Amino acid sequence: MKTDEFIAQWVQPFYLQILHGNYYGLSEDKKASFNDKVKSGLELINSDIVSQLLLSFGWREQITGSWFCGLKGWSQFADIIGTKLLESKVTYAGQGHSFALACFANEDSVKYLTQYLNFYLPKNDLVYDQAWVMPALMWVDEQNNTNHSNQYLVSGGLWDNYIADKKSEHWHLDNKKESFWKLMNYCRENYAKPAVG
């Protein structure tokens, strides 16, 4: 059962910086402070804490739990994370779920990321985490020298059809890929190398 103390230790110091990858754009002094909190958290976190975060109904807990799972390479949580991603019941949490699955870069990652894209890309009116899931799958491909993302990126394919009515630069895949790569590489350099395979 989560207490105020639990939230104060495991959610409040992290979720706003994890949201949208805000940690990447912090000033240098704020980055240093956040990095210290993350490194301390990585030393203390355990599977019980992660389970409480992931199984919460709140997006703040879920995004934080998934993000730490990614940093730790705890792919044993892939089914919980993947299921949460597919359900998309709470806003923003899918960002953390996408990050974690990208860090795992394994068969479960491919399974859940492709299931998500197959279901949500045809639904042009639903703007959920497509712009996180697509680059996450591309990252997995790059780590494993695979091409699972290609099926979505062919001219006139699911990605093109999904973004056809979305004029914002937010949906330019080159921009989304560049941003996602920056976040992943920042975490590799500052916290831990995301697990591969």
Describe the structure in brief.
The chain is mainly α. Helices cover 65% and strands 0% of the residues.
List descriptors.
197 residues, mainly alpha, Leucine-rich Repeat Variant, 65% helix, globular
Walkthrough of the structure:
- This protein is mostly helical and 197 residues long.
- It has one domain (4-190): Alpha Horseshoe (Leucine-rich Repeat Variant), CATH 1.25.10.
- The chain has helices at 4-10, 15-18, 28-44, 47-54, 59-72, 78-87, 93-104, 107-120, 130-144, 150-153, 158-163, 173-190.
- Helix 5 (59-72) runs parallel beside helix 7 (93-104) and helix 6 packs antiparallel against helix 7 (93-104).
- The radius of gyration is 16 Å and the shape is globular.
- The relative contact order is 0.12.
For the residues shown, what is the average pLDDT? 94
What's the shape?
Answer: globular
The first-level CATH class is given as: Mainly Alpha
Cα-based radius of gyration, to the nearest Å: 16 Å
- Number of DSSP strands? 0
The CATH architecture can be given as Alpha Horseshoe
Order of helices and strands: HHHHHHHHHHHH
Q: Work out the count of structural domains.
A: 1
What's the story with the biggest beta sheet? none
* Low-confidence parts: none
- Structural class, judged by helices and strands? mainly alpha
- Strand percent estimate: under 5%
Total helical segments: 12
The CATH topology label is Leucine-rich Repeat Variant
Helix content: 55-70%
End-to-end C-alpha gap: 33 Å
